[in-house]
């Protein structure tokens, strides 16, 4: 009845719920080199355990089911005569587009959610079939936020699956265009920290792009490093404020001057395969960025 196009832990959660309902005919997956969470292998193993055909995107043929579901999918799908339901990890119409959960964490949002919608020619503008809200404790790491949202994916997938199983056309509610906002695509350059920014936003960025993503990047005295943990510290008056300079070095952990506020770096690693720690910092007169 349903062909599922799924990636990431959120895709695993949604497909599991649909499999539990006995609605999945086939699954198409794809590996994301930028996400190290093992979800692609987990999805393949899940399908093997349930006796459901699984195909990698490059080898997948055209769908042969009346319903298609896309979860975490990054490519266009031609549904043909089928009904395509897209799952999106924001409360639409807020944050249409790309990496909305990362954006929500960086923007300091205290809630996010999952939306199921009917696909249209323009991304994330279709009628809404259902939403599940997810509170976000602050601060929060992206891995923990993904776990919260994945549970909501499973809940919403079960609800949409029940509507599909009941038969009849799926009807949704039009989005409020006046309330719409967008989240732009992210690439490797977006891992770079801008020390002229606010310390709270910089901390939230560090937590938002950490594992399973590659980690926030900066230069330490000209050498690339990744920052995986940071703590906001009370600001002090600095006559010649220079973002990126170390103002305190305590127990080997540097406190860095930001455009607004101070940020203590608690986990800094060299940007190389062995990811050796760059702490304790040996030199007080150090500059980040």
Automatic annotation (TrEMBL):
Keywords: Signal
A GO molecular-function descriptor: methionyl-tRNA formyltransferase activity
One Pfam assignment: Formyl_trans_C
SUPFAM superfamilies: FMT C-terminal domain-like, Formyltransferase
InterPro entries hit by this protein: Formyl_trans_C (IPR005793), Formyl_transf_N (IPR002376), Formyl_transf_N_sf (IPR036477), Formyl_transferase-like_C_sf (IPR011034)
Domain Formyl transferase C-terminal: 189-277
Protein name in UniProt: Methionyl-tRNA formyltransferase
Species name: Pilimelia anulata
